[in-house]
From TrEMBL:
Protein name: histidine kinase
Pfam families in the record: HATPase_c, HisKA, PAS_4, PAS_9
Superkingdom of source: Bacteria
Record-linked InterPro entries: BphY/WalK/GraS-like (IPR050351), HATPase_C_sf (IPR036890), HATPase_dom (IPR003594), His_kinase_dom (IPR005467), HisK_dim/P_dom (IPR003661), HisK_dim/P_sf (IPR036097), PAC (IPR001610), PAS (IPR000014)
Ranges for domain Histidine kinase: 295-510
Domain PAS: 17-90
EC number: 2.7.13.3
Length: 518
């Protein structure tokens, strides 16, 4: 069995019973999780399918994380402190807590938390049974409404809708993005000024016409038909739907479409709003930038290799003369050449990722040795900081050792760079269910919650950091792509002034676990 909780308690020849129990848990319509109190931060080691459906997260994004990630920014809840006391004291708890799905949707969770003790009376696990009570909470809130205020609210709502209609109409006309409103029959009801300007049409040529008949059929686009006739009728909004089309009069356009059903009261019900962003020029600029990075990186690599070779020759010649000052100057030059070479390598990695040519070569290797090699490299480069390696996995996994070591070096380098006043960095290794987990923690500057959302974006740098520390904002982007290419998950937990903890999990294959058991 793959899950850490179940594999740890099969020593009494009850494997068949536990297989049945696990199957029952997986089939349950109630969300169920199990956390390991023996591991740092009490991570989730098991979740059933109902919990995945309830939260919108996949199992690979759940395992290894503390339950608090479901509260996102909504941390100041009394229920959280009640849960914290229960975990700290090993007690049962029943709470109603606000959680958020992966897409940010709020849902109310009725959580039954129970501790599990082993035969020695030691607290080992917690079981959480979860119910989505959002509908019940909504009903309770509606019952609290005073009937005497209802008529007044209806009147206020009607007046507010009239005001909003005028307000939205002014926004609709002035917004700098092409907007179109369709009827359920896909007849164009109205378009804004930007649409007319971008697609070189008039209101008379557009409004009141069937969408696919506009401009002698130039809007009869297969991708748009699929969006409007297959995707949108499911009542799900369409977000960032990319459409490329060659218009007869304005040429080829690359468009980003967002579509929503408008369900306002009265005559506006079931109308469809389509926002069209022309990203033709933007995408062309991005492509030029990527092409430039690729060409520049390749062109710099060859002369830099030659310079590196000459510096090594110079160092050997100087060593014979015994000139210590010249030797030190050459040594420093070599260090800066190495830094430049690493930067060029990162730029090449970004270029390969963007072009889809980034390759991962997987071979079996010792995960703990890989981490230790990265730690040793940083100890030599930054002797002023001490890196504490806590725990071990004892696992030999199948992956790209060089690229995963690159991830470790990058995370460790960042931890050292952004905590200049602290002298210690912690690396925590553990096996959580059928995942290996690594956390790199520092007590440095920290990152605000708003900026954590973009920290893994290409070329993004945290505002207060980019003013004090040099960099291009590509290291974490590359790390994220490497982990994704291994089927893993990389995330950050941080508070300004209290440091950061970057963690990632990698799934262990069946062969990994079998090799470890030998």
């Amino acid at each position: 069995m793959n899950d850490g909780f179940f594999s740890g308690i099969t020593h009494q020849n009850l494997e068949q019973d536990f297989k049945l129990l696990k199957a029952a848990l997986d089939a349950s319509v109630t969300g169920i999780i199990i956390t390991d109190n023996g591991l740092p931060d009490n991570p989730i080691i098991y979740c059933n399918k109902a919990f995945e459906d309830m939260t919108g997260y996949q199992r690979s994004e759940i395992i290894g994380r503390n339950c608090r990630f479901l509260q996102k920014d909504d941390r100041e809840q009394a229920a959280r402190y009640q849960l914290g006391e229960a975990v700290a004291n090993g007690n049962d708890a029943v709470v109603e807590i606000r959680n958020y799905k992966k897409d940010g949707t709020l849902f109310w969770n009725e959580l039954y938390l129970s501790p599990i003790y082993n035969d020695n009376g030691q607290l080992t696990y917690f079981v959480g049974v979860q119910h989505d009570i959002t509908l019940r909470k909504r009903a309770e809130e509606e019952l609290k409404a005073n009937q005497a205020e209802m008529e007044q609210r209806v009147e206020d709502r009607t007046r507010s809708l009239r005001e909003k209609e005028e307000y939205l109409s002014s926004i609709f006309e002035t917004i700098r993005e092409s907007l179109m409103v369709l009827s359920p029959e896909l007849k164009v009801l109205t378009v804004n000024h930007d649409f007319i300007k971008t697609f070189k049409v008039s209101k008379e040529e557009t409004e009141g016409k069937q969408l696919y008949e506009l401009g002698n059929g130039q809007w009869d686009i297969p991708e748009l038909r699929r969006l409007l006739e297959q995707v949108l009728p499911t009542n799900n909004p369409v977000v960032d739907f990319e459409v490329s089309h060659d218009f007869p009069h304005i040429g080829k356009k690359l468009m980003l479409l967002n579509a929503h059903r408008i369900e306002l009261e009265g005559e506006y019900k079931d109308r469809i709003l389509i926002a069209i962003e022309d990203i033709t020029d933007k995408r062309e600029i991005e492509q030029r930038k990527d092409d430039f990075l690729s060409i520049a990186s390749h062109e710099l690599k060859t002369p830099l290799t030659t310079v590196k070779g000459y510096v090594q020759v110079m160092d050997k010649l100087v060593a014979k003369t015994g000139d210590e000052k010249l030797h030190n100057a050459i040594e420093k030059t070599s260090v800066y050449i190495d830094r430049l070479n690493n930067l060029i390598t990162e730029l090449l990695d970004v270029s390969r990722i963007q072009s889809g040519k980034f390759k991962i070569y997987k071979e079996p290797f010792s995960f703990d040795n890989m981490v230790q090699n990265a730690v040793n490299s940083l100890h030599q480069a930054s002797p002023s900081h001490h890196i504490n390696v806590i725990g071990e996995t004892g696992i030999e996994i199948v992956g790209d050792e060089a690229h995963l070591e690159q991830v470790m070096i990058n995370l460790l380098s960042n931890a050292i760079k952004y905590s200049p006043d602290e002298k210690e960095v912690d690396v925590q290794l553990s096996v959580v269910s059928n995942f290996v987990k690594v956390s790199v923690s520092d007590k440095g500057l920290g990152i605000s919650r708003e900026e954590q959302k973009r920290i893994f974006d290409r070329f993004y740098r945290v505002g207060n950091i980019q003013q004090k520390f040099p960099g291009m904002g590509i290291g974490l982007y590359i790390c994220s792509e490497i982990i994704k290419n291994h089927g893993g998950n990389l995330w950050v937990e941080s508070e300004p002034g209290k440091g950061s903890s970057f963690s990632f999990t990698l799934p262990l294959t069946k062969s990994d676990l079998e090799e470890d058991a030998k």
